[in-house]
Design brief:
transport; mainly alpha; 2 domains; MFS; transmembrane transporter activity; membrane; 20 helices; 496 residues
Length: 496
């Protein structure tokens, strides 16, 4: 029998009557983590002018957050399994809020970059612990599907809302407000968590695999650093090649270590679960497609269509709205068609929307050229985020919930870093080619962004094919299991 990490008294306050309120608290924290990866983008010009940061240092305002976030996620997930999901969640929220306040108060580049690094490290504790708590709170398959639908919607909305909120806050209150907005939400989460979240079970005494943790953290940081710098120094520069080679060596060392360690940080056996491996593969490709999409779309709207920050943000509302509506319907689709078909169909629709978007001209009208693709992309993303996350945590034991949650976030972050680097390179190469052929700058830029959108569509289509091939769940098997489980429970209920 599988040993549960949920204490016997957890169900009363946290896991039963108030668990939907608990989900709201967890989702709020996750929203901040996802939002903070993109909300700073529009504030960069104003921030750079006041703190006297050049273009190279401005890029590090983003990189300083992404590096510790992506690099520490696996360790954060394992620490949550070891020391308690609620305990690590609260520590992550507290650190994130304090670092956000420090970033808003920054009067130098060094201060700001340090605060951003602490934000990223805190997010690496917060994110896997939060998703692990969701899987603990909602053990029933039907309820878990609904909860993960909300969770996936929050993740998608956070990605889409960054540009909107960044523009509104920067225009109205100045660049520090994009950091200060995290503080009151963090305080609310900290105050509500002890009342709503289940208490942690007694900590296990197994030692942590610190050599493995050091190897994988350094490997992921090296990989993300290599990819993040390609736009500035190129793919064949010594910096990129050295960092990439170091990343490969460290990750290989990590795999060897995990195959031999008595208490591995990441038991490799978890990948025998086809749902986990297929879900992480999907989230890797979804991360690559969406990160490149939102970056290219934001720049296209501002550089080619000459939208200001506020308008560029507002025009992404239909995409976010479609995502929210669809995310709520995904659990029903999963019960009817299975996770495999729901995820595959969502990725195909996402790819179709991206291909449609690539056809937008340099003088595009929002209503005629952008609204339709935005809605298709929003629907596809809503389905993909929810069903991909559900697939990646399906069938995982309670004691590995933090690990599985850390893997999901790691896959998405690494996919985002690789996708952004590759799609940016494609876009710049196409733009330079068109400029060399005598095209005007607006048309050349539009052609470059079109390649970025097509590249993102290719990632989504590859994801659809791989999920369809590797995940062998029958279309309606999950619905049957759920219905059978509910029927058995009803038969066991004593009559009134």
């Amino acid at each position: 029998m599988r040993k549960s990490t949920v204490p016997s008294n957890a169900a009363a306050p946290g896991a039963a009557s108030h668990r939907w309120w608990a989900l709201l608290v967890l989702a709020l924290a996750q929203f901040l983590v996802v939002l903070d990866a993109s909300i700073v983008n529009i504030a960069l010009p104003a921030l750079g002018e006041e703190l006297r940061l050049n273009t190279n240092l401005l890029s590090w305002v983003i990189t300083a957050y992404v590096l510790p976030f992506g690099g520490l996620l696996l360790l954060g997930g394992r620490l949550a399994d070891r020391f308690g999901h609620r305990r690590l969640f609260l520590a992550g929220v507290a650190g994130f809020g304090a670092a956000s306040a420090a970033a808003g108060l920054a009067d130098s580049g060094a201060w700001l970059l340090t605060a951003r690094a602490v934000q990223g490290a805190s997010a690496a504790l917060l994110a896997p612990a939060a998703l692990a708590l969701v899987t603990r709170l909602f053990a029933n398959p039907r309820d878990r599907a609904r909860a993960l639908g909300i969770w996936g919607a929050v993740a998608g909305i956070g990605s889409a809302a960054g540009v909107l909120l960044g523009g509104v806050l920067t225009s109205s209150f100045g660049w520090p407000s994009v950091f200060y907005v995290n503080v009151p939400v963090g305080i609310l989460v900290i105050l509500a968590s002890p009342l709503l979240l289940p208490k942690d079970a007694a900590a296990e005494r197994a030692s942590l695999d610190m050599p493995g943790a050091a190897a994988v953290t350094a490997g992921i940081v090296s990989l993300v650093a290599a990819l993040s710098g390609t736009e500035r120094v190129g793919w064949t520069s010594p910096q990129t090649l050295i960092l990439a080679g170091l990343a490969v060596a460290l990750i290989v060392a990590f795999v060897i270590r995990e195959s031999r360690a008595a208490n591995p940080l990441m038991p490799l056996a978890i990948f025998r679960n086809k749902s986990v491996s297929g879900g992480n593969l999907a989230m890797f490709l979804i991360g690559g497609a969406t990160t490149g999409l939102f970056f290219a779309l934001s720049v296209y709207m501002q550089q080619v269509l000459h939208y200001d920050a506020m308008k560029a943000g507002l025009t992404q509302l239909p995409l976010a709205g479609a995502l929210v509506v669809v995310a709520g319907a995904v659990p029903a689709a999963v019960r009817a068609f299975g996770t495999r078909h729901t995820l595959t169909g969502s990725l195909v629709l996402l790819a179709a929307g991206l291909i449609w978007l690539s056809m937008a001209p340099s003088d595009a009208s929002f209503a005629a050229d952008l609204l339709g693709p935005s809605l298709a992309i929003g629907i596809g993303l809503g389905g993909a985020f929810v069903s991909g996350t559900e697939l990646a945590v399906h069938g995982v034991a309670d004691g590995e919930a933090g690990l599985a949650s850390g893997l999901v976030n790691t896959s998405q972050q690494i996919g985002g870093a690789i996708g952004l680097a590759v799609l940016t390179t494609l876009s710049l190469a196409r733009t330079d080619s068109l400029l060399g052929a005598g095209k005007a700058e607006p048309e050349a830029l539009t052609g470059g962004f079109a390649w970025a959108f097509l590249g993102a569509a290719a990632l989504a289509l590859i994801g659809a094919i791989l999920v369809f091939v590797t995940v062998r769940t029958k279309p309606s098997s999950q619905a049957v299991v759920i219905d059978q489980s509910i029927s058995k429970l009803k038969r066991r209920e004593p009559s009134a």
